[in-house]
Amino acid sequence: MSAFAKTIDTWKRERGPLRIISASGQLGYGIPEPAFRAGLARRPHLIGADMGSVDPGPYYLGAGKLATARRSSKRDLSLAVIGAVRNGIPLIIGTAGTGGGDPHLAETVEIIREIARENGLNFRLATINAEMPRDVIKAAVRAGKTVPIGPIEPLTEATIDGAARIVGQMGMEAFQRAIDLEPDIIIAGRACDTAIYATLPQRLGFDVGTALQMAKIIECASLCCEGGGRDTMLGTLEGNSFVLESMNPARRATPMSVAAHSLYEQADPLSVAEPEGTLYLSDAKYEAVDDRRVRVSGGRWEPAKQFTVKIEGATHLGARAVMVAGSTDPVFIAKAPEIAASVEAMIRELVPPNPKRPYELFFRFYGLGVVGGQPVTTIPEEVGVLVECIGETEEEARAVVATAKQYLLHAPFPGRISTAGNLGFPFTPPEMTAGDAYRFSIYHIMEVDDLAPLFPVSIETIGG
Amino acid sequence: MKLIDAARVIRSKNAGPTQVTCDLMFDTRELYERALAAPSLKAAVIAQRFNVAEAEIIPYPAANAIKIVIPRRIIAGSPGDTDVYGAQQHRPLLDIEI
After folding, report:
1. Cβ density class B12-41: b for 16+ within 10 Å, e for less
2. pLDDT score at A258
3. CA distance A331 to A320
């Protein structure tokens, strides 16, 4: 009997509280092991882990690459998979491999196979893909059923054609279909991190609002505690409330720290949109159980009249090259933006842009108001210099940056006293290619009538 | 009183790649209410301060906190961006008088 089937069976016989642990905030950045082991010792009914998001930017989605180092991903996956299989605990991993596209999912599954081989593990693995069929999105665009989230261009068929990869965020519906296949482990492409934790409770008949409210908090592991943290978090569902407890004894969840967590990375702290409905948190209650555990209730679920899927897409722009340097010269620093403009004019003469696809060139003087985009009130004694080019090819981008390096180093300007060079370079070569460049071109809500065809589920036996 | 002296936490972070959200957290209900009532923390003033078309101010009394949502001028990670995670966009808030 699979871990999911067995757990569901056992719980239905025994009833009682449902214990769920979240291994870590994001798999691949290091699961703190003592807290994870403490979590396993509490005999949870489910281990969940999220493995990605849009946060690290469009590159990973577009390129199909993991943001985390393979060895770190393997270490964390080993802890989760071995911990789950040896103890017969169901495991759900969402947004595999940072981006949750097909290559991310495939690489993560490959690592899991390797772990199974090396540790002699046998289990049934369900996978759920999340790359969106383009004809479905195009039909939605034609029917006026896509809406931008925030300031991004309305979706067009040309944008869909031009995207390197498009994923959709699956919800509980997809995970329910995966549980139907009786797996031990479910690994999903792009997924709502809430669905990882709320699907099993939904299956067992728990109140969906309460389950999602718990999911929303524990998906960030111990981040809801005072001082934050990545340590494994235990959520215990008991009817229409749940108790939160960090598996690191040093981390304390307080009513205030848990309430404040609802703000994190959310445009709206009082509602959370899922494909199948909306979670409302306006009646949330937070009560201290003791000095490090909190009881939470009040999450209210409203099923949607119309299913929606959040879709994310990245478009390939070309290749990036960069150069890093610094300057301590007060005259150069005071005039840096003008000097950059004159150097840029020179570069565009020496490395003529392709008129059909001109390269983009950026000069950034750190210390002069780059990061916040606000002008600084005092001129610093030292500035960092970053030159970046996004060109059609790596060769073009590198040529532009190499030229920029030479001309910025020796640029003449009125009042120049440091006539041997304007820049200090930390290493050589100062210009570096930085791989492919992407941008988010799709971040939209798409109305759909049927979720299942978008997120196909398959099952395989690993080992044995 | 400046916001930096009144709030325990002043932070910014992406809420998806198209928006940045700033959270102001206060230790007491009094400071929270004082900030919420301040003309300098009205949506139009904040939008101007961040040089964006509009801003949204969301009171969150459960944590003595105020959320500010602003559109990103450049989508996270697009050419010209300088803060992919949006984690360093809080600075214009620090010296606001409440």
Report:
1. bbbbbbbbbbbbbbbeeeebbeebbebeeb
2. 95
3. 30
Mean pLDDT taken over chain B: 96
Task: Give the pLDDT confidence of A419-462 residue by residue, as tens digits.
Answer: 999 999 999 999 999 999 999 999 999 999 999 999 999 999 99
Q: What is the pLDDT of residue A165?
A: 98
ipTM value > 0.90: yes
Rounded Cα–Cα distance for residues A231 and A247 (Å):
7
How many interchain CB pairs under 8 A, A with B?
Answer: 117
**Rounded CA separation A180/A187 (Å):** 14
B92 shares contact with chain A (CB less than 8 Å): yes
Helix ranges restricted to H, A351-414: 394-410
Tokens (6 digits) for B53: 């078309």
Residues of chain A with pLDDT under 70: none
- Which of B19, B58, B89 is facing A269, going by the closest CB pair? B58
**CA A339, CA A342: separation in Å to the nearest integer?**
5
Please give the model's pTM, rounded to 2 decimal places: 0.96
Chain A contact residues (CB < 8 Å to B): 54-59, 148-152, 256, 259-260, 262-270, 284, 286, 317, 360, 362, 364, 370-374, 390, 437-440, 443
pLDDT tens digits for A337-361?
999 999 999 999 999 999 999 999 9
Q: What is the dihedral of CA A84, A88, A94, A96, to 10 degrees?
A: 60
Report the distance separating Cα A207 and Cα A433, nearest Å. Answer: 52
Q: With an 8 Å Cβ cutoff, is B11 touching chain A?
A: no
pLDDT of residue A266: 86
Among A259, A374, A390, select the one facing B63 at the smallest CB separation: A259
